[in-house]
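hey so i finally got around to running both of the ones u sent me last week. sorry it took forever, my laptop kept dying halfway thru and i had to restart like 3 times lol. anyway pasting them below in the order u listed, first the sequence line then the structure token line for each. didnt double check formatting much so if smth looks off just lmk and ill redo it

first one:
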Amino acid sequence: MFKENFTANIKRARIEKDYTHKYLADVLATSRTNITKYENGTLEPNLETIGQLAELYNVSADWLFGIKKTN
């Protein structure tokens, strides 16, 4: 569940921000191929990259993973 949410949310956030794979690859110091793999779930980013994505998209890591907070 979290993996599917994560891949969908990072792609959705990228599209909403109008960022290209190349732009993200440059900002994250990785390859465009890795960005594609993050979005299709064949490669999992490390914790540092997840934090960078959350910061770049101005969202929480919880949002990236689709975690809904309950009280």
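and the second one:
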Amino acid sequence: FILPMPMEYDLLWTSASLLMAMFASSLALILLRQKSRPFILVLGGVFIGLGISSMHYMGMEGMKSHLEIHYRPSLFFLSILIGIV
């Protein structure tokens, strides 16, 4: 991905983003190894959705540029809900 401005990535935030994705995926897979009851399937989906959202926003924090990013709370929480659904 090439942006029309200088961009760097913070190693700590980018690494934490990767670890968050791995943790959420592992937790969901551990849950889904159990009997496939609807509650367990929904809980696994919630963990994956939260992991995707956390990975995304942690990765966004790891992007360093001269711009300052601001999030609208309503759209922020809507994006998390979409990730879970």
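quick thing i noticed on the 2nd:
The mean pLDDT is 87.
anyway thats it, ttyl
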